[in-house]
Amino acid sequence: MSKVLTGVAACALLAMLAEPAPAQRGGGRGRGGAAAEPAPPTPRLPDGTVDLGGNGVWNLPWVTNFASRIVGGGDVPFKPWTRAMHEYNASNNVAYDPEGFCLPPGGPRAFGTPYPAEIIQQADRIIIIFEGGAHVWREIHMDGRPHPEGDDLNPTYFGHSVGRWEGDTLVIDTVGYNEKTWLDYGGHMHTNMLHTVERITRPDRNTLHYETTIDDPGAYTEPWTIAWDIGWNEGQELQEYICQENNRFLLDLVDDFGEPFFQPTPGAR
Amino acid sequence: MKRTLGFGLAGLVVVVALAASALAQAGHPLKGSWSGDWGPTPEHRNRVLLLLDWDGSEVSGVINPGRNAVPLRSATLDAEDWTVRFEAEAPDRNGNVLQYVIEGKVENLGSWTNRRISGTWRHGNESGDFLVILN
Asked: In terms of CA atoms, which chain B residue is nearest residue A81?
């Protein structure tokens, strides 16, 4: 591979080593090679609600290609333009991935960007803090409010999220995404018609099961669902990671004509 | 010296990052405003602003939005080779209906600053080439 890896990708490569296999559960770091003991049960809040947080962080895996995580297998239901863009992105080794520019991952990709995340759970909202992906957070409203409509729905990187509990499953419904992100590192595109429904469970203390349905009639012919497991890292804390610092990848990035992607400001170098 | 270089580098990265965040457009590759010109010769050029949109099933658009806007009657993208064809019609100063047929190719798809469409532009009895760049 001739392309210089971005700081994001390089760190992602390291973190990928900690990625649990799709079928692996209860996989916190540092468990060693001994016979696996049953994971502690799902923690709960005093009112019985599943506790998605605790004294630790979630080790998000690097999910580079959502097509490999489709529930039940099958192919991505591309429209012609998204298939062609995916092929184009592959042909240039995903050089123009917005996350490589330190822009936020947006939507489901945040759960497939390999830095830890912390979930802070309150009665009326759930906050998810992502160490990576440009040091961003999501807010999921749990107070029963609807999505804004019309011009009040201002398109953003993470959209507008409302959540509810269906038994022990947190269901997050999100609309209002802008078009400044890719769905994944592999270059699957989306439009601002994207609507995601995420379903999150914690089957035991050490495992978060993440599933999301991608419904984007502007980009795909039908909804498709992807899923993976996320391991718990007891006792760990988030650290400060600033993607924008020393992102040297941009300095040498050229476009299809071989021209610098950005013209440097005179005297800045 | 190293520190100065480091600060300079960091400054450049900040500038570039800010530019990137302001320009990023990663949805449908035609969506947005495009500006450039068309003309029969390199010396005779006409400024063009092209607004294109994607509703999930069709591309729509307008040439030179404003008082003399010309809505596109049809707009197609062949994603196999990234060629486009736009058709429109509008009356000239004498009330005669002029046909617009614009055929081109989208290039530099990944660029946020220099994605372009170029090709041929027919406008009534006139024809020439055109180049527009995504704003």
From this structure: B79
Residue B55 belongs to what domain range? 28-134
Question: Has residue A222 been placed in a domain?
Answer: yes
CA distance B32 to B60: 11
B127 touches A at CB < 8 Å: no
Q: What is the helix (H) or strand (E) element at residue A136, kind and residue range?
A: strand A136-141
Over chain B (135 residues), the average pLDDT of each successive run of 10 is 48 46 75 96 96 97 94 97 97 90 97 93 93 96
pTM of the model: 0.85
A207 close to A191: Cβ distance less than 8 angstroms: no
pLDDT tens by residue, A168-209: 999 999 999 999 999 999 999 999 999 999 999 999 999 999
Of the candidates A84, A219, A250, the beta carbon closest to that of B13 is on: A250
**Total structural domains within chain A:** 1
Cα distances (angstroms) measured from residue A81 to each of A87, A118, A149, B30, B61: 10, 36, 28, 10, 18
Cβ-based neighbours of B75, under 8 Å, separated by 6 or more: B30, B52, B58, B59, B60, B61, B84, B85, B86, B87
Q: What CATH number is given to the structural domain containing B128?
A: 2.40.128
Complex prediction ipTM: 0.83
